[in-house]
Structure formats: structure tokens, C-alpha cells
Amino acid sequence: MENQTQTQEISKSAKLETWLRALQVAQLLAINPHGLGGVILRARSGPVRDRWLAYLNTVAQLGGMRLPLRKMPLGISDENLIGGIDLDQTLRTGKAVLRQGLLAQCDQQLLLMPMAERVEVGTVAKVVSALDNGFISIERDGQSRRIDSHFGVIALDEGIEDDEHPNEKIRQRTAFLLNLDIIGWRDLPETDEDFLPDTQSLQYARENFSEVIVSEDNLNALVGVAEQLGVMSIRALNLAINTAKCLAAFDEEDEVTSMHLQRAIALVLSPRATRMPQSAPPEEEEIPPESDSDEEPENAQDPLDQDSPPPDPTEDQHQEEDEEEQESDTENPQPLEDEILEAAQAAIPADILARLADLADLKAPKGMGGKTGAVKVGRIRGRPLSTMPGMPEGGKTLSIIDTLRAAVPWQAIRRAEMKAAGKIIPIGKILIRKEDFRIKRYQERTQTLTMFIVDASGSSAMHRLAEAKGAVELLLAECYIRRDQVAVMSFRGSAAELILAPTRSLVKAKRALSGLPGGGGTPLSRAIDESFEVASASMRKGLTPALVFLTDGRANIAKDGSPGRPKAMEDAQQSARTASHYSFKSLWIDTSPQARDEGKVIAALLGSMYLPLPNAGANEVSQAIMQGLKKA
To answer: Which of 186, 194, 345, 573 is such that its CA lies 20 to 30 A from the CA of 622?
Structure first.
């Protein structure tokens, strides 16, 4: 009981330390938002995150920001993000008038990005370009303008899964990585007013952080610590230097000290560590050889021997120098790099290396899942894309606003042309020509069809059919959660049968799977042919097919129904060669007790990812299939 209470106290103190570190990050962002880039805040919506944002808002206002946080909507358009033609003012004045976008309005402020893990790649590219350059370049609708903007980013990481993270480009440009999900409301202090910084010190730091200098010794120590932590990014080093300067400026110091450098490394480099630093091995002392106590050394001299030579006067001088060196070593017992490294190692999160190891082998999914199917450009629904020139015909939709926006900059030229040609100029009307028409476009993701091809032949039923059924049932539940369509095909005897057509009904899928009989031959060639025909038909309906084969790969029924293993294997390999032209994503699960070459060869001909799973249960098989589909 006592040990449990002690563990809880340690855990609570660690959470309090994390919260205090988060408050310090808020203070630093109020000093130099652009130089530090910002913070990636791993925290779901709740009182803890709201309290930190409120503290950040208060500290930023103390530092002189009037509107510290500017929220960026998730699906923001390029027009609202970068800027462009102000249609209302342009129509009123008759001249093209540019309006600023959100990034230009964030100068000397902080950009709040909710659900940063879902921000589109194009939007991320524009944000990081502004962070790198310090200005916004508007090149739209025949207009060009450059607007200075120095801001920082508050990227709210609200991902549910472990592999859901904000874009790596944002991570590289933000100094701080915070995780508030480990903190509960009861772990926080009653109030944060005691941790508010002094207004005078905060404003002094904002005005003077750029004048703080960093010594060469501190720079060398910083590079050495980063190397031992496995941080090889120049951006991370620059962010750590800027953080140390802000800390020194807040303390009204002209130069970064080792204490400032330790705190900066703990805040910036430690969360980015990819390996644990190794301490230097202890120096081995030379041990003189042991001598027998009964024997005296040959060169031993009697201390009372009058014939011994007098001591060398230079020995006293050397002895004094050695003593001075020992005293200096006592005063400086530890090199600067080792001292800073210990502080950095203490600040490394306990689970960060384990999480890095778990994620090292995972690849980003390539179109799997109900919401991550293949991307295509549509005309009716989906995420809006930029418009394109074209005529509103064949089901295409005209974008009236973008058409007017394209026509407005040319009004003066067109009116001058009409005047020169002697034509009547209409008053109060917009002159629109064919090249001004803009067509709407949408980005939509196709739904995924996960099709399971289950070997129900006698050899498979003897060994692994029960595990295959259990694995497919677990996967069906996962597909249902992700709104995938599923289909189940079984093959045995002399035919392959689609026992469940593509559906999203979990009840139908389970019922079809539970009644799956076993026994008979293995018509593998027919299973390959018919499964790819079903997948091809589903693709024509707008689905993204993915096939999962669960079989031992030992075909013994030929395509014409005749028994015989050599002919059956030859037909199966020929079917695999033909099916490989479809380029569908597929996974081959070898369910035989021992992995065999037959299945590996057919999987290679199909272009499938081969995964042998001898002696694995339903849970292991289902987990392996999910990981395999992500990597396939």
C-alpha cells in the first residue's frame, strides 16, 4: 500500500513538472513567436488544453500582443489563407483591390491550427513557406504583392491513433513538442496566477532577445549533446539557440549561460531524442603487478643509506604543478557538455524511445480504410479544390464568384478596347468573356472494398480454417468501424463462390462466414480469376479494392476441374500473372503450419505482399493483416 501511494505521488509530481514546462513554453512563445516557430500540442479538447490556451493568451497580452491567437479553419481556402482580389471593393471602385489573407493578418501573433493532423498538404506548404521567409507573396488574378508576416504556430494534435501526427514539415519548424494528454484536471494547481511572468521582464525580453550572444563553448556543447541524443537537424539546433537567447533575455542577461543552455536543450532537443546518450566508459587505472611480501625489490634502497644521490630540485617544481592541476580539476570536475547532457537526459520522456521504436517500421497507409481510399477529382461533392478555366458543360458547374474575380482585373482594358472600336460601353456592368469562366472542382475519396478470399479446402480446413474465420470476423468489425465495404469469397472442391457480395452489413458478413463449410480440393486458379473479376467490377463502380488471400497455396484442382497438383499449380501461376496487370493492392497470408515455397511464388507473381503466419491465432492473424494492408 505504501509503495502504491509513493508511485502515485511520483506520477503526480511528474505531471506537475510537465505542466510547469508547458507554462514556460507559453512564456517563450510570447517573447519570440516567429523565431521559435511555435509548438505542437498533443492534447484533445478539454479543460486542460483550454486552460493552457487561456494562460498563453494572458501571457501574450502581457507581452504586448493585442490579438495573440488567430484561429485557422480546417478547410480554409487559398483565397482566405493567402489573400486575393477583394471583389466587393473592386466592383465599387472599378480597380482591382487586394485583400490580406489570414497569414498576413497574423504578423507578430500566433496562428492556432485545430486538428493539425488533418490539415491538407497544400495548406501546410503555404504555412511553412511563410514561416521560412517571414513574408506572404500574393500572385493571384494578375496582381502581385508582398506582405511581411512574422508569426508562430500553435498546432493542436488531436489525433486518436498513435500514427496520427501533424505534418513533419510543421514539426521541423516548431521548437516545442508538448503532450498534455497525460495530465488530468485534478493534477493541475489551483491557479496559474502565481506563475505569471513579470510584465517588465517579459517586455524587456521581447525587445532585447536578438542582442543576446552565445559563446563558442556553448555552441560546441550544444552540437555535442545533439549528436549524442541523435538529433541531426540544423533547424532543431537553431531553435534551441533561439530558446536559450529568450531565456537569457528574460533574466536580463547579455550572454547565454550554461543554465540557459540546459533549459533550452531540455525543452527543444530532449523531446526529439532518438536514442539514449551513452555515458563515457570509466578510465582504466594501471595496476602495478603484485610482488611477494617476503621479497624486496632489487632496486630498493635503504632510506638511511648515505650513498644515495640527493633529490633533484626540479622534482619539487613538477610536484607543485601536478598539485595545481589536481586543484583545477577539482574546481571543474565535469566538462560543460557532460553537465548539459545529464540535464537533457533527465528531461527525455520515459516512453519516447519506446514509441519511436514502435513507429519506426510503420509506413503511411496508401489508400486503405473507409476514409483513406483513392483520391480522385470530382464535379459534385468532396473537398473543394481550386477552380479551373473551362465551359460549364457536360455536368460541370460554373463558379460565379471565381468567374467574376477573373474578369474584374481586365475591365479597364476591355472598356478601352470597346471605346477604341467605337462600341457602346455598358454602364455598371461587368464585361465577361469566355476565358473568364471558372469551373468548380472537388476532391473526393473513393470507398474501400476489402475482399477476403478464404481457402476452405480440405488441407486448409484441417489446419487453419478456424483461425482464418476468426481473423476475418475480427477484421470485418474493423472494416465496419471505418465504413469499408467488405466481401467474402471461399474456394473449395472445383469452384470459387462469392458467399458475400460487397456490403457494409456486419450481420450479413458474420452470418455468411459462420456457415462457411470446409473440405474438398483447392481450385486456386479459379479463386484468383474470380476474385480479381469482382474487384475489377467494384473499381468500375467507384470503389478502391484490396484483396486478402488466406490460403496455404497448395493448389490441386486445375482450371478445367481436373485433379492433379502439377497442372493445378501451373494454372494458378498463369492466373497470377494475368491478374498482376490489374495492379490492385493485395495481401497473401500463408496459413500453412510451415511456410512453403508454393505460396511465396504465387504471391510474387501477383505482386502481393507475402506474410507467413505459422501457428498463429485469430488475433495475431487479424493484426498482421491490418499492418500488412497498411504497408502493401
So the answer is: 573
CA angle 516, 521, 525 (to 5 degrees): 95
Alpha carbon distance 323, 136 (integer Å)? 63
Please give the tally of structural domains in the chain. 4
pLDDT digits (tens, 9 = 90+) for 160-182: 766 678 989 999 999 999 989 88
Pairing of strands 110-113, 98-100: unpaired
User: Do 598 and 455 meet the contact criterion of CB atoms below 8 Å apart?
Assistant: no
d(CA 252, CA 201) in angstroms, rounded, equals: 7
Helix (H) or strand (E) holding 353: helix 352-360
* Angle of CA points 310, 314, 319, to nearest 5°: 105
Cell numbers 472494416 label which residue?
479
Residue whose C-alpha cell is 536578438: 210
Q: CB-side exposure of 531: number of CA atoms within 13 Å?
A: 37
> Within 13 Å and on the Cβ side, how many CA atoms surround 134?
5
Q: Which three cell numbers stand for residue 614?
A: 505459422
In 3-state terms, what secondary structure has residue 559?
A: coil
Beta bridge partners of 610: 588
CA 558/CA 566 separation, integer angstroms: 9
d(CA 372, CA 387): 23
The confidence band for 369, taking pLDDT boundaries of 50, 70 and 90, is very low
Q: Which domain holds residue 220?
A: 198-277+336-362
Distance CA 179, CA 349 (A): 10
* Span 218-231, pLDDT tens digits: 898 888 888 888 88
200 vs 519: CA distance, rounded Å: 83
In the beta sheet, which residues pair with residue 497? 490
Q: How many CB atoms lie within 10 A of CB 543?
A: 22
Return the top range by mean pLDDT from 95-99, 137-141, 160-164, 202-206.
202-206
* 471 phi-psi bin (left φ>0, alpha ψ -120 to 50, beta other): alpha
Angle (CA) 135 141 144, round 5°: 35
Mean predicted confidence (pLDDT) in 283-303? 45
Strands 585-590 and 609-612: parallel
Tell me how far the alpha carbon of residue 457 is from its chain's centroid. 43
- Asked whether residue 85 is assigned to any structural domain, the reply reads no
Q: Is residue 574 classed as helix, strand or coil in its secondary structure? A: helix
CATH of the domain at 581: 3.40.50.410
pLDDT tens by residue, 480-539: 666 677 788 888 888 888 888 887 776 777 777 776 777 778 889 999 999 999 888 888
Of 495, 589, 591, the C-alpha closest to 548 is 589
> Once rounded to an integer, what is the mean pLDDT over residues 393-408?
78
131-153 pLDDT tens trace: 999 998 877 666 678 888 999 99
pLDDT of res. 357: 42
Q: Report if residue 299 sits inside a domain.
A: no
**DSSP-assigned states of every residue in 49-98:** HHHHHHHHHHHHHHTT-SS-EEE--TT--HHHHHEEE-HHHHHHHSS--E
Taking the C-alpha atoms of residue 245 and residue 211, their distance in angstroms, rounded to an integer, is 8
Residue 356 clears pLDDT 70, i.e. is over it: no
Q: Could you tell me if residue 284 is inside a domain?
A: no
